[in-house]
Automatic annotation (TrEMBL):
It comes from Syntrophothermus lipocalidus (strain DSM 12680 / TGB-C1). PROSITE patterns: ACETATE_KINASE_1 (PS01075), ACETATE_KINASE_2 (PS01076). It catalyses: acetate + ATP = acetyl phosphate + ADP. Pfam families: Acetate_kinase (PF00871). The gene is ackA. This is Acetate kinase.
């Protein structure tokens, strides 16, 4: 069976087509600026040259039509007809408390996705647009929703509840949900394989470090805690997100800067984090370069970033009562040599000791821990698309 994996943003469509007989990728691509002048499709068929198509498209339905056209194109396509696509897997950011697993999409599933619009306004609406566009074009096959929040639904109430009036949870489901679930799922299972232990017997801390960043503590095959919360704003310092702050700061800056609720939300999500602290960039590489050149604010941003991650490592190892391994993944985690070294520095007491020579690697699966480290330190490239494809394949069968 061939499975199409679709990830729709507000103005983008990412896709991969996989052959599940051997889990090989046949093609992948990105359609950007959907509904905006200057729409561009970059299509990468395996074994063939990349194709770039510039064509303004009004909506996601027209965008998906173009994606399907290039997949079956006689010159740069990879299948002869759409009939070869056996199922479509959709990344959906928020499933609330309703879904702890991936599900075949029906009217109830779409209703739950709609009900989560208020708590995931940037992600769930385009996710649903993508689902409905694909269903209109491919009505006779199964469509599967794979939720970013699902993996974290094993958290105990003591870790997902906030110390707010309980009625907020009862009426509005205000609680910690966690995100990047498919990534944490993939790399934690892969880490158990590398440890040579059953997944259900491992104590793992996963670090998904990209422009958006989150961590998870996994014990006995279940997530017990994660850093992102009700929204992806909570937790670590990120590229443009502030992470954990005193909530009173929100009211203070609204008053001082005369910001509306939507403006302060944008301020904390888009103008803060590493960008806000450094004044240089949201890209860790640019900030490291500036710090090396003597930029004190850039160095401060790095120090804050490393310290926040270290704090969560200590928190999670305390909750796990030990740790078998740390797992670095995502763009920064997989490629940030200096970042990994600085995060692991001075954690010897916790049994974490990194080997600087082994650590000189980017984007490859490797154990960078010193030989005498009690805790293994893995770099594992994530593969969220494969997780989505596997779940979709199993449900479609």
């Amino acid at each position: 069976m061939k499975v199409l994996v679709v990830n729709c943003g507000s103005s983008s469509i990412k896709y991969q087509l996989l052959d599940m007989t051997d889990e090989s990728v046949l093609a992948k691509g990105l359609l950007d600026r959907v509904g905006i002048p200057g729409t561009v499709l970059k299509h990468e068929p395996v074994g063939k040259d990349e194709v770039v198509i510039k064509k303004d498209l009004p909506d996601h339905t027209e965008g998906m039509k173009l994606v399907l056209e290039v997949l079956v194109h006689p010159e740069y396509g990879v299948i002869k007809s759409m009939d070869e696509i056996g199922a479509v897997g959709h990344r959906v950011v928020h499933g609330g408390e309703a879904f702890a697993y991936s599900v075949v999409i029906d009217d109830r599933v779409k209703q739950v996705i709609r009900e989560c619009f208020d708590i995931a306004p940037l992600h769930n609406p385009p996710n649903l647009m993508g689902i409905e566009a694909c269903q209109a074009l491919m009505p006779n096959i199964k469509h599967v929703a794979v939720f970013d929040t699902a993996f974290h639904q094993t958290m105990p109430a003591k870790n997902y509840m906030y110390a707010l009036p309980y009625e907020l949870y009862e009426k509005y489901k205000v609680r910690r949900y966690g995100f990047h679930g498919t990534s944490h799922f993939y790399v934690s299972h892969r880490a158990a394989d590398l440890l040579g232990k059953p997944y259900e017997q491992c104590k793992i801390v996963t670090l998904h470090l990209g422009n958006g960043a989150s961590m998870a503590a996994i014990m006995d095959g279940k997530v017990i805690d994660t850093s992102m919360g009700f929204t992806p704003l909570e937790g670590l310092v990120m590229g443009t997100r502030c992470g954990d702050i005193d909530p009173a700061i929100v009211f203070f800056i609204m008053e001082k800067l005369n910001l509306s609720t939507s403006e302060v939300n944008n301020y904390l999500n888009k103008k803060s984090g590493m960008l806000g602290l450094s004044g240089v960039s949201n890209d860790l590489r640019d900030i490291q370069e500036a710090a090396a050149a003597g930029n004190e604010k850039a160095q401060l941003a790095l120090d804050v970033y490393y310290t926040r991650v270290k704090s969560y490592i200590g928190n999670y190892i305390a909750q796990l009562n030990g740790c078998d391994c740390l797992v670095f993944t995502a763009g920064v985690g997989e490629n940030g040599i200096d970042m990994r070294e600085n995060i692991c520095k001075n954690l010897d007491y916790l049994g974490i000791k990194l080997d600087p020579e082994k650590n000189k690697v980017r984007g490859k699966e490797v154990d960078v821990a010193a030989d005498d480290s009690k805790v293994r330190i893995f770099v594992i490239p994530t593969n969220e698309e494969l997780v989505i494809a596997r779940d979709t394949y199993q449900l479609a069968k």
